[in-house]
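Hypothesis: this fold can be encoded by more than one sequence.
Test: take the structure tokens below, design a sequence, compare later.
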């Protein structure tokens, strides 16, 4: 179990640093009010977790440790949005369309409400 935690931690630390660097890099040339850095990180993270998921499904040598390092750790540290989209795709794959829309809508709406409440609580 400790070994698995270390794989997640190494990937998570790397992903978090990469997110920070990407957002700073984009902020250096973007003059938009739109949060372009976060948007790009989320899209890139979704793309990466899709690649890693496909590799894990097709390749036996892409073992649990690689999945923990890259999917849970790296993508999780880079963006939790990637895990959210992968779980949504899992619901679609299982033909749970209604549950997909409930999960997606509730996650976005309640996430925004919870963030707003947290801000208001400590404002």
């Amino acid at each position: 179990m400790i070994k698995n935690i270390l794989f997640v931690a190494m990937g998570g630390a790397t992903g978090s640093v990469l997110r920070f660097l990407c957002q700073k890099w984009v902020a250096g040339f973007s003059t938009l009010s739109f949060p372009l850095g976060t948007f790009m990180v989320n899209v890139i993270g979704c793309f990466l977790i899709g690649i890693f998921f496909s590799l894990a499904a097709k390749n036996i040598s892409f073992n649990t440790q690689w999945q923990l390092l890259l999917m849970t750790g790296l993508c999780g540290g880079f963006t939790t949005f990637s895990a959210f989209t992968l779980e949504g795709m899992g619901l679609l794959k299982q033909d749970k369309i209604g549950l997909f829309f409930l999960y997606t809508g509730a996650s976005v709406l309640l996430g925004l409400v919870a963030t707003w409440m947290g801000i208001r609580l400590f404002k």
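The CA atoms of residues 17 and 79 lie 11 Å apart. The longest helix spans residues 2-29.
Hypothesis status: open.
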